[in-house]
Amino acid sequence: MTREFTNGHRIDASQGGVVRRFRAGRATVRAMAVALCLALIFACLPAWAGSSRYTKDKGVPAAAPAASSVSAPAPKAAAKASGEEPAPSFAKAAGGLALGSTTLRSPADFQECVRVALSQSPLLTKSSIEIESRRLDVGDAYSQYIPTIIMSTTFYLRLPEYKNTAAPTAWSSVMQNASSNPTQNLSNSISAANAVYSGNSNNRNRKTYDLNFSTGAWNPLLTAFEVQAKKEMVNIAVLSHLKVIDEGLKRLGTTFLQLGMVEKMLKLSKEREDLAVKNLEYVKTKAGLGQGAQLDVRIAETRINMAKAEAEKMRTTRSVLQDEMKFIMGIPFVQKINLDLTNAPGQVLEDFNPASVTDERLRKHSFKLRIHDYELSLQRKNIALSYIHFLPTFSFGFTSVSTLNNTSYKEDTSALPFMYPNLSFNFPFDWWTKSRDVSRQYKKLAQKNVEGRNLEFTLMSEFQQALAKLRSANSDVKFANSTMELQKLTTQQAQFRFESGQAEYDAIVKAMADYLDSRQTLITKEYQRDVDMLEVRSISGDFQDRYINATVMENI
């Protein structure tokens, strides 16, 4: 079969079929190569997505930040004399447990309250989630070691037509080289026809798209510093979480001390009420004998009402403090709790001695100073990072020849690979701006050093102020105790005078009321002293050593 052209020459159709099959086969090979590249990219996506949710030097999941950052207290032997098993030495993240999922053993002493609070306190939820977020940032920083592949393509709805310059030249050559040899003339005509067909085929078989695979600006050295900075942020988040735990436990201890004081006040209110009842009986008897007025009876009844009102106020305060304890421990408010408030100051303060606190111990246990050390390390990394910005960044990729390019290439360039690798370097010459950034980072480092000295001075000042308040509270307790002893002796003197007939029963009632008032003042002063002692213990770090395993920081 032959195909006839407008110029009267003929060409074998089998030759055109071969050309078309060659073009179609080459397009098929290119399409297969594109599909192979896309398959490799999508195969690498799971490795990029799960780059790591763990830190590089700690092989633990990020979902349990508080599991190793706190340790439950070991119960005292005296408190567990009833035969109960000691509390397990663990504490889970506050965000990982439902409210009230940890059972509070009754009656619960302070150690049991600490165990439950470390397991499920809502106060620890926000800071523990912050640790998880920072660890995710570390995983994201590690993923930056793998450059991001960006595929861009351009589809053309209409392409410009290439001008076929080979066809006129070929026909002109045929006409000029015509000879008497028919075979030679036929061969020249076939070649000219092929040129015409090839030009038209190039316009028909051109690709309607361009492909480009490239990476963004990539600097592995910059990524290494980013990973280290994110790890420092994790350590800061963990220290902040430990600080929140320390403050939560101090709040728990303060509330426990308040409950102990309220229990003493309730017993004192009961004694006031009993004294008022005895006084009412005496006044009524005296009025019945005609030696007293009805107004004295009403005054005695009012004192009973006052004692009952005071007891009711104390019970309301106890209910509010119990709700506070439930909130700190993460227990539902509808659940009843039974607390062992026997010797509450001894349970909370234990055998702490402020005289054993040293300056080195204060610096070692200060969360603010430890966080500042990590911030100082971050600032040093920022200085190194400002120097790294002077280095060039580079990117690499694969690019196809644009279909709009009408430049003639060698025929073998159209075979595989049809995409061509390239490497780009970005070297901005903004050295003046970057040198000013280096100076700025050094200034910030100097500021951090000054802040560190101020924090250390503030820590020592806070500790000295806490010690001064404790000494003042001890003096108040001694004075209140002396006053109580004096009122006790006065009560005994009134009792002796009443028994000897030298005084009326009213003198005993008055002396006893003054004695109860002095006991109430002593209870208040003792509570204030215990709170000040708890503050000193918290600042010194003894409280966190007792309940928080801060050495876990070395394993993060």
From TrEMBL:
Signal peptide per UniProt: none
Q: Name one GO cellular component term.
A: cell outer membrane
Coiled-coil residue spans: 297-324
For this protein, the record's SUPFAM superfamilies field holds: Outer membrane efflux proteins (OEP)
Ranges annotated as spanning the membrane: 29-49
Q: What are the alphabetically sorted keywords of the record?
A: Cell outer membrane, Coiled coil, Membrane, Transmembrane, Transmembrane beta strand, Transmembrane helix
Subcellular location(s) per record: Cell outer membrane
Name of the protein in its database record: Outer membrane efflux protein
Q: Which organism is it from?
A: Solidesulfovibrio fructosivorans JJ]
Source taxonomy lineage?
Bacteria, Pseudomonadati, Thermodesulfobacteriota, Desulfovibrionia, Desulfovibrionales
